[in-house]
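Extended Data, panel c. Modelled sequence:
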Amino acid sequence: VQLVESGGGLVQAGGSLRLSCEVSGRIFSAYAIGWFRQAPGKEREFVAAISWSGASTNYVDSVKGRFIASRDNAKNTVYLQMNSLKPEDTAVYYCNYATLTGIPTDISSWGQGTQVTVSS
């Protein structure tokens, strides 16, 4: 199993980024995928999750209305559209297999993550 995140970068507050998570090594379309983030000096936290079909999503309160998770099962890829970014969104973002409630289910498969930095 391999998960590769991309799409991070430096953006001003109020800007947008779209993260991608490409997954290989498992039947991608059968599993929910979650997005997580870890800011410096903090624990990794749940951000968003999307069901195997894409019909259901769940978000942490701090990103509701700003972030949108989606997936393309034909491309084995999950996306996280991040709008109205705030400095407190600065973190390394990771994807992983997860429950819709935000529990990662394959802790041996964390990727390198992608850095998102939001300047004020």
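The mean pLDDT is 94. This feature is highlighted in the accompanying rendering.
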